[in-house]
Amino acid sequence: MNISGNTSLYGVVGYPVKHSLSPLFQNKLFEYVGLNAVYVPFEVKREELKTAFEGLKALNVKGINLTIPHKEAIVDMLDFVHPDAEKIGAVNTVKFGERTEGYNTDWIGFLNSLRETVGELKGKTVLVLGAGGSARAVLYALEKENAKVYLWNRTKEKAKKLSEIFKSETVSSPEEVLDSAHIIVNTTSVGLTEDYLLFDYSLLKEGQVVFELIYGKNTLLKEWSQKRGAVYLDGLKMLVYQGLESFRIWTGCKPNPKVAFQALEKHLK
Fold first, then answer.
1. Residue 28: φ, ψ to 5°
2. Exactly one of 71, 95, 148, 237 is catalytic; which is it?
């Protein structure tokens, strides 16, 4: 990589963000298509997002991804929000130019990665844990696929509000519907910085699919899923698929998924 005054700058904004694997595969994608660009992590605290966003514009950054805790807060700072992102109420991809444009590619990443394991989602019963920006993307994707969705969040009011936006039914505890759920999706940050039981993990069953949106962590949910014979998925493929769509939005180039996955496989060996 030869960085010069003509190198375009992209990145991921979040807190924490040092663990992100996005730079590994995004930089390989730029190299593969022959673009003079670099992708770096920007660690920005919640209260500093507005200042950081103005700084990124001033520095002529071309595009960013956003992760926890900024996906919802960024929406009101943008000139244009794509209808998908507007419905979801969260943005994870921003393209800078004459105007700032916000998109949500999380729902595409989630759908593509889940379909690889379960195929058709219509009629499947899904339990979603959490009600933040990532949950919104998951709920949007599941609504499009006509899945039967139950939603649980520690703050019941937040879950109820989301259930009114997306086709889902709130539950007081995950255990209420756990036995009938084909798929359990953890969209919370539990397991990322701190880890504890969101429900009685010993009730998981063989054949259930457990999808955690975080990746690279040996979480309690992962441990119990494997112990109980459930099919465990983390968010690594979702990360790649949402990143591929972000890359396409920024550059207009169709990225090669194999390049991205090979970059991660080499790093994770």
1. -65, -35
2. 71
Question: 83-104, pLDDT tens digit by residue?
Answer: 999 999 999 999 999 999 999 9
For residue 268, is pLDDT > 90? no
Ramachandran region of residue 207, left (φ > 0), alpha (ψ -120 to 50) or beta? left
DSSP 98: S
Q: In this structure, what are the phi and psi dihedrals at residue 229, rounded to the nearest 5 degrees?
A: 85, 15
Tokens 């005054």, residue? 5
Q: Can you read off the two tokens belonging to residue 144? A: 């499009």
The CA-based diameter of the chain, rounded to the nearest angstrom, is 58
N-term to C-term CA, the chain:
23
| Cα–Cα distance measured from residue 32 to residue 155, given in angstroms and rounded to the nearest whole number | 45
What is the C-alpha to C-alpha distance for residues 153 and 9, in angstroms, rounded to an integer? 37
Q: CA 257, CA 261: separation in Å to the nearest integer?
A: 6
Q: Is 229 helix (H, G, I), strand (E, B) or coil?
A: coil
Say how far apart CA 202 and CA 228 lie, in whole Å.
Answer: 7
- Tokens 């972000």 belong to 246
Beta bridge partners of 9: 38
* pLDDT in the model for residue 227: 97
All structural domains of the chain, each given as residue ranges with its CATH number in brackets, are 8-104+237-268 (3.40.50.10860), 107-234 (3.40.50.720)
Q: What is the pLDDT of residues 152-211, one digit of tens each?
A: 999 999 999 999 999 999 999 999 999 999 999 999 989 988 999 999 999 999 999 999
Residue 208 φ/ψ region, left for φ over 0, alpha for ψ in the -120 to 50 degree band, beta for the rest: beta
Strands in the chain per DSSP E:
8-14, 37-43, 63-66, 80-81, 93-95, 101-103, 125-129, 148-152, 169-170, 183-186, 209-212, 231-233
What is the 3-state composition of the chain as percent helix, strand, coil, each rounded to the nearest 5?
A: 45, 20, 40
User: 71 catalytic, yes or no?
Assistant: yes
